[in-house]
Design a protein that fits this description.
Helix content: 25-40%
CATH architecture: 3-Layer(aba) Sandwich
Number of strands: 5
Bound molecules: 1,3,4-trihydroxy-5-OXO-cyclohexanecarboxylic acid
Shape: globular
Oligomer: single chain
Order of helices and strands: EHHEHEHEEH
Length: about 150
């Protein structure tokens, strides 16, 4: 069975640390990538961590990953609230899909309360800053441990 957690990050997340640090924190995306790699390894998983500012690139990565990975952890960033196409690509996945957000989208502007990704997700975690990714990796490992094993 694949051990890969595909961790996808959407538009503008490459600007973390300079982008509204009071909301998104002072860590860079590289810092989060390093934390996720370490956490994944501690759970016996491998983190494949990517970021794109392009909806189509994120969708292409999901198509390529079908049947090959243990789970998807996705921070769709702004696309969370707009992209039916990204939701449709997530619906195609044959593995757990975990939605993550650094900020608590539910206590922000009303337009952030709508998540198309949530409709395709196994579950969602929001509001714990960079630690959200760590919580999602723990949740993915728990889901995989509970899943029926192939004989
Ligand atoms: C975000 C929340 C989104 O509303 C926003 O557009 C982002 C980041 C988060 O991680 O808190 O880009 O997904």
């Amino acid at each position: 069975m694949s051990k890969t957690a595909l961790i996808l990050n959407g538009p503008n997340l490459n600007m973390l640390s300079v982008r509204q640090p009071e909301i998104y924190g002072r860590q860079t995306l590289g810092d989060i990538e390093a934390m996720a790699a370490q956490k994944a390894a501690s759970l016996g998983l491998v983190s494949d961590f990517r970021q794109s500012n392009y909806e189509g690139e994120l969708i292409g990565w999901l198509h390529e990953a079908r049947g090959k990975i243990a789970g998807v952890i996705i921070n769709g960033a702004g696309l969370t609230h707009t992209s039916v196409a990204l939701m449709d690509a997530l619906m195609l996945m044959d593995c757990p899909v975990l939605e993550v957000h650094l900020s608590n989208i539910h206590k922000r502007e009303p337009f952030r309360h709508v998540s198309y990704i949530a409709k395709a997700a196994t579950g969602s975690i929001a509001g714990f800053g960079a630690h959200t990714y760590i919580l999602a990796l723990d949740a993915l490992a728990a889901l995989l441990a509970d899943a029926p094993k192939d004989k």
